[in-house]
Amino acid sequence: MDHREEIRKFLNELLLQKGDKQPFADDTSLLLDGRLASVDAVDIVVFLEEKFGMDFAELDFDPTLIDSVDAIDALLQAAKKITPSFS
Amino acid sequence: MLSTQVATTSDAFPSRIPSWLKNFRIIPRIETYPVINKLAKTAVGKALILALFALGLRFAMTEWLPLSLGLAVITFLPVRRRILLTILTLVFTFAVPWVKWPHPLYTAALLVFVIAIGGMLFLLVMALPRSWIGRHPVFILLSGYSLLIVFAAYFPNDTHWYLTVWDFTATLGAYLWFIAYSLLDCRATGRDNLTLQLGTYRPFWGSPTTPFVKGSGYLRRIEAQDPGQLAVTQLKGLKLLAWSLLIMLFAKYYSQCVHGFLAIPTFTDAFFHSVSRAPYPWYTCWASLITEFLDSMLAVSVIGHRIVACCRMAGFNALRNTYRPLSSRTIAEFWNRYYFYFKELLVDFFFYPVFLKYFKTRKKLRIVVATFAAAGFGNAFYHYVFYLDYISQLGLWRSLAAFHVYIFYCTVLATAICISQTRKRGPKASGFFRGRVVPAFCVALFYCLLNIFNYTERTYPITEHFRFLAHLFNLTT
Q1: How confident is the model at residue A75, as a pLDDT?
Q2: By the CB < 8 Å criterion, does B287 face chain A?
Q3: What does the domain layout of chain B look like in residue ranges?
Q4: Cβ of B220 under 8 Å from any chain A Cβ?
Q5: Which of B15, B374, B394, B450 lies in disulfide reach of B346, CB 3.0 to 4.6 Å?
């Protein structure tokens, strides 16, 4: 399973837990449009830290960085460029 | 941003309810009607929306005319929206209230000084991003403001500078969180320059000390990008103002009914009787506590809806401040739904900085610590520095000691939110009653009881609050 698919699956599970069964595209805003809440942002951060070894303390964190599948993927790509050893 | 403001209607109603009732809305979703949407994109349609909005504002506030004119200017010049926001904000900061100020030059000088401090801090952080100040701008701002309060508290009160020091402290306090949001934006990609940041220093659509609607970074993300988005945003703004007016009307008759016709005392009255050892019967106290809880929710909704409606009319599709708080099924969810922008402030300035840096290998502990930093410490800090009158009258330590009731409130709230966020949930209860009504009732009951301690005045000790709580269960003699 590639990065995007894993992210998509995780976000879908988060939405389902909240009873949100509406479909979402890769560019659908989830946090800014209110489909996910602060506590879900926390879950996304933990997921990215555990799954991809992201270190948010090193980033200037902004919730828009994890607002959609596209945004998260872009964040992962950027982190790879900055840190060559990034998993 | 982080809210649960999209109605998840799939399990919101029992399946037996017919679809027309499920989709019924007191105010229809006019932004989805193609004819109205098309009209809203035209100059005539915009003028019509603005006229209706101005008419609504007339019932809601005294300064409806300048605000409506400001909204008209920003509506018809959308490509200059952000710079107009700055100009209008400065006009509403200085020119509009000028005649109401008893000492206009003095007040204006204080405001200029405070805004200049905010601007200089912003430029300093931009110029020195790798320095200590560049890496911890909000921490320095809040620490500096705390030191200013200490300075003011110990400033000799027999000098003619005494009042000026307190006036300056109060003015800076009014701008504190707005400046903090602009400093937070310094590190964002595509950040706005200082001129545009000034538009977010108490924007012209009105804002309490909690920034409505956050800072420049948020405005960039929610700004309407084309005429279609602007039309939808303005129609939603018009709807929200209508909501605000309806709730205001309801609140008026509700208050007359419960406190007049039903003769239920206000919470303040019931509490005072309890302190005076002549309490109302326990069931009357319950009634006053519940009506107070509903009263405060209505009041927050009216003001929040009106401000967000104005923001939407200006072309920024901001989320509501209050959204169906009584439908919350968890304590954390209620906090999110009741006062969204205050929760956002605490999350942005206290929760994330702690959560992202500390205890990264221990998930539960980091959530607990970050939640206490936000709902506990951040909440108490915000309210302690907000009420400067008590500090100037009682002094620093006495006012802090007398603040113990609110500190207790924050501690209980933070603990409850921690439990709500970290506990493992069993399978979701099914059915409308067990799945929705029971959890929503329990959450509302918790906040209703906690409201006994939501007390920022410094008059009565915590024992009186516990006495009132005990009396609710008929446990006092």
Answers
A1: 87
A2: no
A3: 9-224, 232-472
A4: no
A5: B374
Of A19, A34, A36, the CB nearest to B319: A34
Closest partner CB to A35 (pick from B6, B332, B367): B6
Burial of B314 by CB count in 10 Å (0-12 exposed, 13-18 middle, 19+ buried)? buried
pLDDT tops 60 at residue A84: no
3-state DSSP assignment of residue B322: coil
Size of interface A-B (CB pairs under 8 A): 64
Q: Which residues of chain A are within 8 Å of residue B356 when distances are taken between CB atoms? A: 45, 56-57, 61
Residue positions counted in chain A: 87
Average pLDDT of each block of 10 consecutive residues along chain B (477 residues)?
Answer: 40 61 84 92 96 95 94 95 96 93 95 96 92 91 96 90 94 96 86 94 93 90 93 96 96 93 94 93 95 94 96 95 92 90 93 88 89 95 94 91 93 93 70 85 95 84 94 85
Flag if B1 and A57 touch (Cβ within 8 Å): no
Contacting residues for B395 by C-beta, under 8 A, at least 6 apart: B153
The confidence score (pLDDT) of residue A22 equals 86
SS3 sequence of B228-274: HHHHHHHHHHHHHHHHHHHHHHHHHHHHHHHHHHCCCCCHHHHHHHH
Specify if A34 maps to a domain.
no
* Interface with A, mutate which of B5, B324, B346, B356 (most A CBs under 10 A): B356
Give me the pLDDT at residue B358, please: 87
Cα B278 from Cα B476, distance rounded (Å): 11
What is the domain range of residue A71?
A: 1-18+49-87
Q: Is B343 on the interface with A (CB under 8 A)?
A: yes
pLDDT score for B472: 94
Strand, helix or coil for residue B223:
strand
Does some domain include residue A44?
Answer: no
Other CB atoms within 10 A of residue A12 CB = 15
Q: Which residues of A touch B2 (CB under 8 A)?
A: 31, 34, 36-38, 40-41, 63
Q: Taking CB atoms and an 8 Å limit, are A18 and B421 in contact across chains?
A: no
Determine, yes or no, domain membership for A68. Answer: yes
Domains contained in chain A, number? 1
Provide the shortest C-alpha distance from residue B308 to chain A (in Å).
Answer: 15
- With tokens 């110029």, the residue in question is B127
The verdict on a CB contact (< 8 Å) between A63 and B2 is yes
Check residue B4 and give its pLDDT: 39
Give the pLDDT score at B281: 95
**A77 inside domain:** yes
